[in-house]
């Protein structure tokens, strides 16, 4: 059996197969709660914890799960990690827990998590599954943070508002007021603005990919045009 390429696993999770920008999975929480940077970061951390835990667990027991019942077993394992994450947030970040609300238990239905369990963790060892879960989680969290930052900036002219909900009272000083607004720009803070902001992020990724492909093509042409030395 060939050794997994950890570099490719990382690149897929962070960029080439990003669950939010490429696979377009988990869009319900992505668009619903990412109206501030901190909300996006909080949900991203919770999702990453579940992704890593479920990937490791599925990989560990994959040889003992009958194929006919693997999906229900995966869902039960994911649900147990979601419950643990929910209890931890309830205990240590209660205010953020209240803000995220129903979208924490809905992590169970996140297609990214069940998809990685089925497509990767059930077919690979523990270490590659850990790296896959971590990188997919970081990729998803990065999009959540960027989306939240963009919407928060456009909607209320701040960044890191509500940081104390995640990091404690001392973090209230982290709030940055970029410009003053008399009234919040509701379009950016409501779901329609989330679709618009996500579209901008996807467009930005596509532009970068095309430029990278163009550079790689030009480099290939220059290399092939060099005369061979006899």
UniProtKB/TrEMBL annotation:
Protein name in the entry: Ion-translocating oxidoreductase complex subunit E
Annotated InterPro entries: NqrDE/RnfAE (IPR003667), RnfE (IPR010968)
GO biological process: electron transport chain
Purpose: Part of a membrane-bound complex that couples electron transfer with translocation of ions across the membrane.
Organism superkingdom: Bacteria
EC numbers: 7.-.-.-
Classification lineage: Bacteria, Pseudomonadati, Pseudomonadota, Gammaproteobacteria, Oceanospirillales
GO CC terms: endomembrane system; plasma membrane
Transmembrane segments annotated in the record for this chain: 45-65, 71-89, 96-115, 127-147, 185-204
Principal location: membrane
